[in-house]
Amino acid sequence: MVKIMKICEDIQNNIFIYIENKHKFKDRSIEKIFIDTYKAKILNKVPENKIRPLWVGFKITPICNMKCEHCWADLKGKEYSLDNIKKALDKLSEIQILHLTLSGGEPFIRNDWEEIFSYAKEKRMCLEIFTNGSLINEDICKKLNKILDKNVDTIQISLDGSNKEYYLMQRKKDCFEKVINSIKLLKKFGFTVRVNFTATNLNQSEIFNTFKLCNILNVDTFSISHVYDLNKGKSLYDKVNFKEYLEEINLCIINASEFITDLKLFIPVEFFSLTATKVEKKELKIKDKNILLNCKMKLN
């Protein structure tokens, strides 16, 4: 146990050092967004709105063509009409939102996705598209080519394994080759592509292998997200092996300098406590005179 604790501590320190270093990721070029936006303000003498969010996530559809084992999204309700989406984008533009993430469900499942993306770009927003990549083809790439700004806009594709066996295990649909082809197509057209890997107990041993695959595919950024403790993800959250998860991330960090693909880590706050390796339960509930304290502590 002491040896395992020391290994985890060393790896965590390595992760701390990596995250603290400054990396110039091609995706989310916030500096350019700010410069372009404030240039426009100066030239057009637009009064500055001092209180506003900078970044908004917008789920444009609850409909998805997959049934992923880990999905945290609340895939219920009806789609917003195109008219209502445009009204929402108008309001976001009024408060000078700089960065807009469009997701779902699967955004490309909408027949009017092209009009939505174009309208958002007319509002001078930096776009980030979250997609599972299964619907992208050459025709879609040609349309995106006319809409997106390749200097600031990013397409994020979900890929949870380096082969179809692991992909199918988590995504429940045999689309691995289709997604790989989508990545190749997007890179052929010169888009900035981020691949996001959602780590669960089903695929945590595949993190580094998937990073290597992304490097072969010339992906711009490989990001790693721990499964969210929401909706379907609740049943998987506690099953991730903390030690193996850290070891896989550490392998990525060790090799990152040799890869052309940048590595971006999204680490749950629980992992930043060395105490977490000793905690057996994620939640501690204390009831006292109708007071409930719910302390989320850790995986395993």
TrEMBL record:
Keywords: Iron, Iron-sulfur, Metal-binding, S-adenosyl-L-methionine. CDD domains: Radical_SAM (cd01335). InterPro entries: Aldolase_TIM, Elp3/MiaA/NifB-like_rSAM, Radical_SAM_PqqE_MftC-like, rSAM, rSAM_sf. Pfam families: Radical_SAM. Residues 50-264 form the Radical SAM core domain. GO terms for molecular function: catalytic activity; iron-sulfur cluster binding; metal ion binding. SMART domains: Elp3 (SM00729). This is Radical SAM protein.
